[in-house]
Amino acid sequence: RRCILNRIKANVAHTKIELFVGGELIDPADDRKLIGQLNLKDKSLITAKLTQISSNMPSSPDSSSDSSTGSPGNHGNHYSDGPNPEVESCLPGV
C-alpha cells in the first residue's frame, strides 16, 4: 500500500487505499505478509481502491457528489492501461 501511494505521489495522511482480490478485501494486517502467504491462486488480479479522506468532506453534499461522479472516470482511464512494471516491482515477490 505504501509503495502504491508513493508511486502515485498521494498524500498518505489524506488517502486511504483498499486492496481487493476477487472482490474480497485484503486486511491491512496482512500487509507485512508475502504474497505467497495470502492463499492466492497462481494468477490473481489485485484491485486497489483509492479514497481521499479529509476532515471537511461532509461540508457540502453537492461538491462531494460532483467529485465522486468525476473521479472514477478520470482515474479509471488512467490506471486501466494494464499492468505497470514499476508498481509491480514494489510488490513483494513470491
TrEMBL record:
> Which top-level group of life is the source organism from?
Eukaryota
Q: Does the keyword Protease apply?
A: yes
Recorded GO MF terms: peptidase activity
Fetch the InterPro entries from UniProt. Answer: UBP24/USP9X/USP9Y_UBL
Give a yes or no for keyword Hydrolase in this entry.
yes
Show the segment(s) annotated as Disordered: 52-94
GO terms of biological process kind: proteolysis
Task: Please report the name of this protein according to its UniProt entry.
Answer: Ubiquitin specific protease 9 X
Organism field: Rhinolophus pearsonii
